[in-house]
Design brief:
This protein is an alpha+beta fold. About 15% of the residues lie in helices and about 35% in strands. The chain contains three helices and eight strands, in the order E-E-H-H-E-H-E-E-E-E-E. The longest helix is centred in the middle third of the chain and has 10 residues, at about 50-60. The structure holds zinc ion.
Length: about 120
């Protein structure tokens, strides 16, 4: 799923984040649409959005952000992606990626997470 950012022509600091596509845009409440006219700005993958934005987007299908375009910081930095933001620690190995076998005499790759130490919180 992809997101799209729109910038208001009335106020360049006014940004709107919603799902990509005309349908998502048409589904916005008229009060939001009337904050425009909106000009298309950047877009990207929803999964990369910072958690708060993703949460609001999931809840109400749009996010209104008031910030200068240079301060617009929508995505989780690449290094933080995956383990911290998108995945839950593996409950079987507690993030170690290894589990004990033979009563702790040996360990093996955790079968639940294939040794990654985390599992996807959502499929
Ligand atoms: Zn595991």
């Amino acid at each position: 799923m992809r997101y799209k950012v729109w910038r208001s022509n009335k106020d360049k600091s006014l940004h709107l984040l919603c799902r990509e596509g005309a349908e998502a845009f048409e589904a916005l409440p008229s009060v939001v649409r009337n904050m425009g006219p909106w000009t298309g700005s950047r877009d990207g993958v929803v999964d990369r959005l910072r958690l708060p934005y993703r949460a609001i987007l999931g809840e109400q299908a749009f996010v209104v952000i008031y910030a200068h375009v240079s301060k617009l910081d929508l995505e989780t930095p690449a290094g933080m992606r995956g383990i911290v933001a998108e995945n839950a620690q593996c409950p079987q190995c507690q993030g170690a990626g290894r589990v004990a076998m033979y009563h702790g005499l040996r360990d093996k790759e955790c079968p639940r997470c294939s040794g990654r130490g985390w599992i996807r919180s959502k499929p």
